[in-house]
Design brief:
single chain, alpha+beta, Butyryl-Coa Dehydrogenase, subunit A, domain 1, Butyryl-CoA Dehydrogenase, subunit A, domain 2, Butyryl-CoA Dehydrogenase, subunit A, domain 3, 3 domains, 8-stranded mixed β-sheet, about 15% strand, globular, binds coenzyme a persulfide
Amino acid sequence: MDLSDQKGPPMVTPFALDPQQRAWREELRTLAAERLRPLAAAGEPGRVNRPLVATLGELGLLARLFPADGTSGGPAAGAVRAMDLCLLRESLARECTEAETALALQGLGAYPVVQSGSARQRARWMPEVVAGRAVAAFALSEPAAGSDAAALELCAEPDPSGAGDGWRLTGEKAWISNAPDADVYTVFARTGQAPGSRGVTAFLVPGDSAGLSGRRLDMLSPHPIGTLTFDGVPVGAGDVLGVPGGGFRVAMRTLDLFRPSVGAFAVGMARAALAAAVAHAGERRAFGGPLKDLQAVSHQLAEMATRTEAAALLVYAAAAAYDAGEPGIAARSAMAKLFATETAQYVVDAAVQLHGARALRRGHLLEHLYREVRAPRIYEGASEVQRTIIAKELYR
Ligand code: COS
């Protein structure tokens, strides 16, 4: 259930989606169900699904994500609208989580190029990413630096063989979505001696770079995830995103945009689980009537619906605040991600419980969502990291 979809006069509260946005969500759901789900079903779990990514390009969904694709070299920073990103992710997630995640990873991997890349970098990569021909990835985490991102150790050493403005990257990245198959990586490495976040630089590294290799990780989460090994990978000044030493801010600003949208993904999954639970409780009979007539069941459904609605409102509010350039974005983004991902875990788990054993059968929607819903509470900052960000803001 989604209150903003109720029949009747359009809602005009500041927290309601407008009629165009609601209609767009429906269009996206139809596209996801009819065009994307069959492609997702034909893909191999844990592998980049290139036909799916290409179709996201052909359908114009990646272009909607990156309206200023940088081909003209014009101003692109800030061109991504958080609300569009959230509505895309929520709507695709309701029908096809694989398509949702493929779209989101193109966004996460390439947004630093739009945000901080040069005109040349944008012109080289963005048309390919937007067309779904080049697969992008965001490589921040390392075996010894997950939540504490500023502790990353991937080393960028000045390259004595280069023209004096290059580095060689040596070290490991871990749990990188779309690795090792991506065509281009946004890579965060340590340049110079500055400690912590200050010594981090963002680089754009093509997937076929000399010295770059990786392997797949077999994870609970169905989307592709892997490791990357950098064995003296050469990068030059033209590969830096932003400025040397400015990489941590590139990462944090990217996450400020994407965290509410992880919440939107979670809301989409929660809505799908809730719809399944409502349908099941209306049809399934036990103890002389439909399940919904048992107060324990109806109150459970009411709780799931209320929490899902609250999560959606927090996500939309964070996205609207981001698009309006309001202050306090880091905390708002963190709240939206925290609340929505925790809510989705609760809602999916409750939907499984209401269905009983049938939901645990391989291939059941809820079995799929139960696996999908766990990772978003960890990636792009675990729930504990989000609480840290929110608490910091309280004492600022
Ligand atoms: N926007 C812009 N700049 C930011 C920022 C933001 N949202 N957040 C932090 N910064 C800047 C700070 O202003 C600070 O700059 P100065 O050194 O110039 O003062 C610098 O970055 C360091 O900030 P801070 O001291 O807050 O960094 P911490 O090391 O304490 O780490 C957290 C902050 C925990 C928030 C960060 O490490 C984090 O987000 N961790 C989770 C990482 C993550 O999401 N990983 C998943 C990878 S993608 S799947």
